[in-house]
Design brief:
Helix content is 46%, strand content 24%. The chain is α+β, with helices and mostly antiparallel strands and 249 residues long. The strands form 3 sheets. The protein has a 4-stranded antiparallel beta sheet with strand order 3-1-2-9. Helix 2 runs antiparallel to helix 3, helix 2 runs parallel beside helix 4 and helix 6 packs across helix 7.
């Protein structure tokens, strides 16, 4: 998954740039709304909300924006544009499976934007369920890279985690999503620096993208979808050879 891991690094770098420009605040605010809607509106009693708030604070989101998002999620703030969750699925260039989570106040607008992103890159938007069977939901905990991977593996096992991957700059721990808080809390107690936590869709198998032209189209699709304000998360099952990825970056 070297190429896919490099794409993850690019996304993290892009997120830092976007945060400086303020363009990521909409996505962060909507993540808070979802977390507050699905649990208690108190970060101390809602792990997902606490994680979303911590991420927003790290990006420099003003406190009043965070409080307003929590109020919207808990139903204590009304406006003329209620948000709803939507999931889109489709196939990208080279048969890559793509799963998209969005929040929108206008289904028609969002569907048109997502469909255009696929069509501009040679992919196609599909029906609900066409690719989701290739993914499974997992809890994912991102850590600062650690020098002793064996010690981390032991800590992950003790915490109830399932797996671990590293890419040289960051480690990711995978667990049953119902155990996310338990595993993250244990790792923090063990002294590991937790950068991010969340529930993600992890592909069960990957599609190998072997030529530079297809890889370029796949990454273009990922970027187009990521740049849509209504899109919260994009997941795909592509794997790009390291040499091909290096030729594009």
């Amino acid at each position: 998954m070297a190429g896919h891991s490099k794409w993850a690094n690019i996304k993290r770098q892009k997120a830092r740039v976007d945060a400086k420009k303020g363009s990521i605040f909409t996505k962060l605010s909507r993540a808070i709304i979802v977390a507050a809607r699905n649990g208690l509106p108190d970060p101390d009693g809602n792990f997902q909300l606490r994680a979303a708030v911590d991420k927003a604070k790290a990006a420099g989101m003003p406190s009043e924006n965070i409080e307003r998002a929590i109020a919207k999620g808990s139903g204590n703030w009304s406006d003329d544009s209620p948000l709803e969750d939507i999931r889109y699925e489709g196939y990208g260039p080279g048969g890559v499976a793509v799963l998209i989570e969005a929040m929108t106040d206008n289904r028609n607008r969002t569907a048109a934007e997502v469909r255009e992103a696929f069509s501009k890159t040679g992919g196609s938007l599909g029906e609900t369920g066409c690719v989701s069977w290739m993914f499974r939901q997992k809890g994912v905990i991102s850590l600062e890279v650690v020098p002793d991977e064996e010690a981390l593996l032991l800590a992950v096992a003790e915490a109830g985690g399932d797996d671990l991957s590293t890419d040289g700059s960051q480690a990711e721990v995978y667990c049953d999503y119902t155990l996310l808080e338990q595993v993250a809390t244990h790792l923090k107690k063990e002294g590991y620096q937790v950068q991010d936590v969340g529930i993600r869709w992890i592909p069960s198998n990957g599609v190998q993208v072997e030529d530079a032209e297809t890889a370029k189209l796949v990454l273009n699709l990922m970027e187009r979808l990521d740049n849509l304000d209504d899109v919260q998360n994009v997941y795909a099952n592509f794997e790009i050879d390291e040499a091909v990825m290096e030729s594009l970056v």
